[in-house]
Amino acid sequence: MTTANPHHAVDGFELGVVDYLLKPIAFDRFLKAIGRVKERAPKSVLLSSDTGFVSDESRTLSAIGPVAVDSPAAEFIYLKTDKKLEQIHLHDLVYAEALGDYIKVFLPDRFVVTHLTMARLAETLPPDRFLRINRSFIVQLRHVTVLEGNSVRLSTGESLVVGPNYRDAVKERIRREQIG
Hints:
alpha+beta; CATH 2.40.50.1020; 2 domains; 5-stranded antiparallel beta sheet; 3-stranded mixed beta sheet; 4 helices; phosphorelay response regulator activity; LytR-like; LytTR_DNA-bd_dom; plasmid; Response regulator transcription factor
């Protein structure tokens, strides 16, 4: 909550505000408040380079900027596609491909395109479930059916090249899942 009137603090905290900022707001104090908001961030997140997150309860936009999914329990994200917010279940996300400042997200039956960088997507997806295999691709591990040479084959039949800078990390990550 931001206000120029200090008398609203008690009312704000009774309503459950995360923090109370009195105007004029010092930048370091603003950053501290943002840290508190991120600690309480919901599991569902809007991924966009120009908007904030969507609360699972209220579905209202916040102007604090993108918030990463830090919880492996997160089950879906929101992507801004064609002037709408679309819920994407992480279980359905097969892989993502970079297209400059856009990402093409492949689902079992279709794909969606959103304005987002690969770096932002990579830092947002749960690392125990997703793996970056080169500069242009992130795959969901459960869809990797074969690792052969310098490529992975996905459950959808696509074969993607593992980049030279990612080979060791990809092989190590897949070997951790190996039995025998």
